Amino acid sequence: MAVLGKTKKEVVSEFRSGEILEAARLVFAAKGYGDATVDDIADKAGIAKGTVYLYFPSKREIFVELIRKGFLDLHSRTVKNMDAAETTADKLRAFISTRMDFSDSSREFFQLYYSEYSNLLATPSKLSPEFQDLYDQQAKLMEETLARGVRRGEVKKMNTAAIARLVYDTTRGAIAQRILGWSRRDAKEDADLVFEVLWRGIGCE
Amino acid sequence: MAVLGKTKKEVVSEFRSGEILEAARLVFAAKGYGDATVDDIADKAGIAKGTVYLYFPSKREIFVELIRKGFLDLHSRTVKNMDAAETTADKLRAFISTRMDFSDSSREFFQLYYSEYSNLLATPSKLSPEFQDLYDQQAKLMEETLARGVRRGEVKKMNTAAIARLVYDTTRGAIAQRILGWSRRDAKEDADLVFEVLWRGIGCE
Amino acid sequence: MAVLGKTKKEVVSEFRSGEILEAARLVFAAKGYGDATVDDIADKAGIAKGTVYLYFPSKREIFVELIRKGFLDLHSRTVKNMDAAETTADKLRAFISTRMDFSDSSREFFQLYYSEYSNLLATPSKLSPEFQDLYDQQAKLMEETLARGVRRGEVKKMNTAAIARLVYDTTRGAIAQRILGWSRRDAKEDADLVFEVLWRGIGCE
Amino acid sequence: MAVLGKTKKEVVSEFRSGEILEAARLVFAAKGYGDATVDDIADKAGIAKGTVYLYFPSKREIFVELIRKGFLDLHSRTVKNMDAAETTADKLRAFISTRMDFSDSSREFFQLYYSEYSNLLATPSKLSPEFQDLYDQQAKLMEETLARGVRRGEVKKMNTAAIARLVYDTTRGAIAQRILGWSRRDAKEDADLVFEVLWRGIGCE
DNA sequence: GATGAATGAGCCTTCATTCAT
DNA sequence: AATGAATGAAGGCTCATTCAT
Predict the structure, then answer these.
(1) Distance, CA of C34 to C1' of E7, in Å
(2) How far apart are the first and last CA of chain D?
């Protein structure tokens, strides 16, 4: 027990938190944050409403935690796959396909993530500071990759910060298409398409 | 009267509707759809709450109408500017810069438009059928432009439907960056950047 | 209308506020602040719960307003009757009997007033500043009367501030006895009793 | 064991009860009955919430028991000190100063006791019958003292029952002033003041 | 006996919508 | 047509109490 660093209590607690998050993920994705009620989440999790509040201080916090977890997961996968790639082109390809694949397996996460992202547009102040950090962290990842590509002569000289965002946005858009069912291609095809356009746009030769 | 196709009553009615929409545009953009109240809108419009319901059947419908109007305005400007351009490259440039400029002058519209767009991700069912039409209409515009470019030999042979969406998404992303204040470049610079990457990605030579 | 200084709307609004306060007075007195619900008040007033919130911002504020109004009423009656008395003894008598009479006619007010007063003991911080002012205002009234009595030679030289409080407390206690039904004497008898003990205690001769 | 009249189990049980009561005393005094939670009490006592319910059937009953114990303690001290005094004047003085001293050393008890006393005003029905007995018991104590004083010729002929209550109320008021921090005198001074006014009011000569 | 996770009834407050004037 | 008072359903959150371990 001590070896694992967790007491039985903590394990149970994390299990419950996990169940609630899982229920919330489905409910939020199905109804949207505003239309989802804490009762919905409790019902889906098979527990009483009050129990939810033993594990989370507020409805909003459930949402935030959900995004945070998915975000970190996505981020670490992306980092891992990009690190495994050698050339900048392959790193870009890894970035795109990791996200595309993740969106297929974690569709609900992306629904929440993107809608939260866009809600920022309406009310930026709502963005918790931590979210801002997460976004920045992501942007840096691509920006540095591109900057290295420039130094290596693999990528055209350009405003890497702006292009990094552009890469994100284009990828995000393609994923959104898939989620909305507007693309009937498989993930690989979509990833290739995005990669090719972008790489031709920014790569040398 | 009949000549104009509108009775005096209709003119007055449209005037009021317009005032309410204008008020709603500001309120929704400032607070977000969920946090905005019908009272806020009525106050901003300088009328009584009940009056709002003489012109619109529900809060939701005000929002929808707002998006629709802005959407049609944006669409017609885009069409006009693209038609004025000769080459596909210039049409693409026109597409991007028209939107970028519009986002500067109608920032609130884009805030609503994009957040609504993203809410589709969470709850597609909410999308009124007409919205679907509007999106499709837009997509077609770019798709046909690209297809013609392909026929003319200006654009690489490719899945024009998918690329059309990609162009939209990339442009949307760049505009979102601007709205969020994450870009300090002026509209022209951002438009050029997006154009260059995309055109290098899809154009011939 | 202008002559009265009130529009019809204001009259109606005040009427409603009054109805709600009246209902709240009965409900609070019957159940205590904590056990009373806004629904109880709305029901008693014969209106919908939401309507209550058109006239008062919160349950707490209804309570505060209730106390404030009764307080001011009691205070003005007390001042009037004390002013009408010539000697300090008569002023003291007026003070006591005004309150005793008021407690008979506005029993619910005293129930609330005294229980609020005592809740101060448990949580002084809750006392809204305005309440503090009201209490001080009251204390000053008796203190000045006693001070004048001292100057006139009608009252023994003494700590008038402390005695003023003592007079209040003794009167309050007698009223509480009546409200609790522990006194079967009529108001006049109780008032005389309190007066005699106090006057013998503080008056000259 | 039988000699002591208590089994070991009972001793332990009483110890725990005492701990809970002590914790509750602090919590109730700090937050007021309504705002205090059973969790607060359990935390302060260093036990689990459920354990509280092994010793008390409800939150309310903890409160009642708390009042009862303090009450009996106060009562027995008062009786003892009054018995030690010879003259009625000294007995009255003993009554007042015993309470005044007790309020300094058991401030929390008085906060609860007085606020509960006043809550009776709002909801007399809540008063458990036993409380009624406690109050009566107290009243009798002073009443009999005064009656004896009358017989001895030390006290004026008067309605001893009513005066007994008056003495209680005046003392209570002075203590409340102290608890509220409205008196900066020391306990002795306050006790003297109350005694002098009352004794002049009821004593012979 | 002790625990504390779980419960769920209940409360205050908000606000889209209605309707009498 | 315009008003805005009134409505009441709904939701987030609290907390006294219970009960399986």
Answers:
(1) 23
(2) 57
Chain C CB contacts of D177 below 8 Å: 165, 169
Query: In this predicted model, what pLDDT tens digit does every residue of A139-152 receive, in sequence order?
Result: 899 999 999 999 99
Least confident stretch, B190-199, C12-21, C90-99, D127-136: D127-136
Note the pLDDT of residue D125: 59
By residue count, chain C amounts to: 205
Going from the C-alpha of D108 to that of each of B65, D25, D67, the distances in angstroms are 63, 6, 10
Tell me how far apart the alpha carbons of residues B97 and B103 are, in angstroms, rounded to a whole number.
10
User: How far is residue B66 from each of residues B28, B103, B112, B126, D12, measured CA to CA in Å?
Assistant: 10, 15, 9, 16, 72
3-state class (DSSP) for residue B155:
strand
**Residue C47 CA distance to nucleotide F6 C1' (Å):** 8
Residue of C nearest to D109 (CA): C122
Q: What is the distance between the alpha carbons of residues B159 and B166, in angstroms, rounded to a whole number?
A: 11
Contact B197 A194 (CB under 8 A): no
Radius of gyration (C-alpha) of chain B in whole angstroms:
19
CA distances, D16 to each of B79, C23, C174, D66, D74 (Å): 82, 45, 40, 14, 22
pLDDT tens-place string over residues A41-72: 999 999 999 999 999 999 999 999 998 899 88
Q: Are A154 and B126 in contact (CB under 8 A)?
A: no
Q: Do residue C119 and residue D115 have CB atoms under 8 angstroms apart?
A: yes
- The answer to whether the beta carbons of residues C134 and C71 sit under 8 Å apart is yes
Sign of CA dihedral B100, B101, B107, B113: negative
Q: What is the mean pLDDT of residues D52-65?
A: 94
Token pair, residue D85, equals 């005094």
Band of the pLDDT at C138, cuts 50, 70, 90? confident
Residue A113 class from Cβ within 10 Å (0-12 exposed, 13-18 middle, 19+ buried)? buried
The nearest CA of chain A is from the CA of B174 a distance in Å of 7
Cβ contact C201:D198 at 8 Å: yes
H/E stretch holding A142? helix A129-152
In chain A, the domains with their CATH numbers are 1-56 (1.10.10.60), 63-202 (1.10.357.10)
- Note the pLDDT tens digit of each residue in D15-48: 889 999 999 999 998 888 888 999 999 999 999 9
Measuring from the CA of residue B38 to each C1', which nucleotide is nearest? E16
CA distance A112 to A65: 11
pLDDT digits (tens, 9 = 90+) for A105-134: 888 888 888 877 777 666 665 666 677 787
Best mutation target among A182, A197, A199 (most B Cβ atoms within 10 Å) is A197
B119 interfaces chain A, CB cutoff of 8 Å: yes
Protein CA at C50 to nucleotide C1' at E14, angstroms: 9
Q: What is the pLDDT of residue D136?
A: 82
